[in-house]
Amino acid sequence: MPPPADIVKVAIEWPGAYPKLMEIDQKKPLSAIIKEVCDGWSLPNHEYYALQHADSSNFYITEKNRNEIKNGTILRLTKSPAQNAQQLHERIQSSSMDAKLEALKDLASLSRDVTFAQEFINLDGISLLTQMVESGTERYQKLQKIMKPCFGDMLSFTLTAFVELMDHGIVSWDTFSVAFIKKIASFVNKSAIDISILQRSLAILESMVLNSHDLYQKVAQEITIGQLIPHLQGSDQEIQTYTIAVINALFLKAPDDRRQEMANILAQKQLRSIILTHVIRAQRAINNEMAHQLYVLQVLTFNLLEDRMMTKMDPQDQAQRDIIFELRRIAFDAESEPNNSSGSMEKRKSMYTRDYKKLGFINHVNPAMDFTQTPPGMLALDNMLYFAKHHQDAYIRIVLENSSREDKHECPFGRSSIELTKMLCEILKVGELPSETCNDFHPMFFTHDRSFEEFFCICIQLLNKTWKEMRATSEDFNKVMQVVKEQVMRALTTKPSSLDQFKSKLQNLSYTEILKIRQSERMNQEDFQSRPILELKEKIQPEILELIKQQRLNRLVEGTCFRKLNARRRQDKFWYCRLSPNHKVLHYGDLEESPQGEVPHDSLQDKLPVADIKAVVTGKDCPHMKEKGALKQNKEVLELAFSILYDSNCQLNFIAPDKHEYCIWTDGLNALLGKDMMSDLTRNDLDTLLSMEIKLRLLDLENIQIPDAPPPIPKEPSNYDFVYDCN
């Protein structure tokens, strides 16, 4: 008979004794189990002891998490969290430097556990650590020269413990003094400081800014962009990442009226060119976290355009009307007209109306009315003026070229610029908060101080070129805009490293090329509607679905590395999950870092029998997403979340690294449960494979012999003179 579901077999260690194998009844109180273990080793005062995982996590077993114990788990009998917290609280106040250092090292390790953290915080441990940072460093300042390594390690462990304790969200960030903030800021402002101290100081400042409005103001007074810039010019990518994270946090939390001022300071300090030189074009790969921080900086920079994008033009504002006059002046170089007589006034109005029509405005009499729609509002006019002033030859050529065409074939520059600005804002999601998981930054936007305006200038010339290639008329305006959007989107997906490279990509995506791509995609997704073809599709669909199912299960057997998201996104913690080859058990466990390749089953200590799975839920139905659904910035995380429900009130929570892995896992788990695979990926794969299979079966192969074996591989050529590097 199989053992009862509430009984788990574990091994328990105790220093100096042989490990003990025992069965734990999950229905018994945890205190009774600990007493039983202590009695077995004749240890008195069982209330002073606790059980913890014997793996690298060393997390305590509590009534809340005891259901995570699986058969074969190795546990360790150790001091209770309260005892450990009390002893460490005393040890870190020791007068002995060595004892103090060892205690802080233990504290930094144990603080990752929320159970221990709660006990240590209850002893006012956070206040003790902040006092040590504020005054303790000064106390040992004299010893710094002779004991520099010890001093650095001590401060590093103190700050590490502080960060870990605060990560649990038990204590509010609003409780910290100005003296503590000044001390942390001083570590960042020092030119020569231990890397680990600098790292943790930057992490603390970022958390302060993100979690408290009051602390944002205090940190902003202590830290300037000029003091952060030198950390970006070093070679340590992790320090660079933390530095950009602090800049992003200050940018994100700045009041609306301060953001533009901060952007001006960033421009003065040449932040963009420093990031381009020392980060993007450095001779090393950009890791995921750095990519995320660059993406956030890109989003926050473009969001500065939101104010202009949502500002309507005031037709009565003379300064704004002067911009339109300037556009006309540059295009037609009109000489100033005498304005003394009513006759000349009428003549000038008539001339202006004619010129505004040539400029492509919808309202020829009062073009200011064209800019009353938001978005794009005044941003469109800003872009047009920038193009006219900085790319004057191209601007004049486009305007004059179109004004000389027949009315029905002219590309209206004004209307095109307004719609294009609106489209570019949609593509770059101007005004939206940055996503927590997105790494989609574009290097080319870091190559120019006015990157959005230059982006517009390239795209407006593309629009004019595409208009001519399509031989479009005013009725085709929306069709042209759709083609231009497709050209821009396809060019952006290649991640060009510069604006010139982006322009080059667009040159290769002419209207003819877009038609070829569309035709190719149409052929690949062709849907034959005749009755025999539909019957054939119906017949072979189960085979294709079975093939997709096997592919999904094979991917689950390979496994995937998932990331644990916590309050501070940057502190990546990973875990791995994979299906056993016989498709009966899910193996999973924590990892110290993202793995290279597959992780073997025997290194994953936790198991979940597939037979125990009750259901798979996604999105808002996931237990770990219940509180996050309403937050705008968690929308993307919500779309990647799924959970496995098993036993009573037990779940295994996932956040997929991307949409593809999300589809693979939800499909695979549904296949294991005998349910339909409903993801978008399955629909696309089914359409593609069905289309290919039907085309293969409809090939005219009569009188054509298909060999049983593949053809032999030809011999190597005598030389390779014909090979050349096309790059």
From TrEMBL:
**Could you tell me one molecular function GO term of this UniProt entry?**
guanyl-nucleotide exchange factor activity
Ranges for domain ELMO: 319-492
What keywords appear on the UniProt entry? Apoptosis, Cytoplasm, Membrane, Phagocytosis, Phosphoprotein, SH3-binding
Gene3D superfamilies per UniProt: 6.10.250.810, Leucine-rich Repeat Variant, Pleckstrin-homology domain (PH domain)/Phosphotyrosine-binding domain (PTB), SH3 Domains
Fetch the PROSITE patterns from UniProt.
Answer: ELMO
**GO annotation terms (biological process):** actin filament organization; apoptotic process; cell motility; phagocytosis, engulfment; Rac protein signal transduction
Query: What's the protein called, per UniProt?
Result: Engulfment and cell motility 1
